[in-house]
């Protein structure tokens, strides 16, 4: 006899919903934190959202020593540097980054580079909240701003095993 299961929760986050944060240099741009275990009741710990990296900017090299990450490029072009090897990025490209894989993203193009991310287990949303500034949909980008003075503490207490200091 097949066991019956209750359906899980369904969550839909609209285009102007969810928390969003402007990001400091060197990425600039912004993130949207969309889904996580807390707002979905998921049986596995994860966080998911989007990041938009401004033209000429980059996400610093880093790794997550106890997390895995999926990245799906939605717009723009750029380069992923994974363990020292360059990989071109364009809409439709998808990356899986296992534990402790060093990676960074460079937007050398004239348009924003945007991607959807999932981190397992979660926590990336906590990091973005701590280093960013609240963003409202449609508002103009602020002038570039510095990372918090206590960035090393924030990184150590969230999801990072190591980050480049540039």
Q: Any overview of this molecule?
A:
There is one protein chain. This protein has a single domain, classed as Jelly Rolls (Sandwich). Helices cover 11% and strands 37% of the residues. The protein contains 3 helices and 12 strands; from the N terminus they run ββαββββββββαβαβ. It has helices at 37-40, 124-131, 151-157; strands spanning 19-22, 30-36, 47-53, 58-63, 68-75, 78-82, 85-89, 94-97, 103-106, 113-120, 133-134, 162-163. It has a 7-stranded antiparallel beta sheet. Strands 7-6-9-4-12 form a 5-stranded antiparallel beta sheet, with no helix packed on it.
Amount of beta strand: 35-45%
Shape: globular
State the order of secondary-structure elements, H for helix, E for strand: EEHEEEEEEEEHEHE
CATH class: Mainly Beta
Helical fraction: 10-25%
Strand order of the largest sheet: 8-5-10-3-2-1-11
SSE layout:
Blueprint: E1 19-22, E2 30-36, H1 37-40, E3 47-53, E4 58-63, E5 68-75, E6 78-82, E7 85-89, E8 94-97, E9 103-106, E10 113-120, H2 124-131, E11 133-134, H3 151-157, E12 162-163
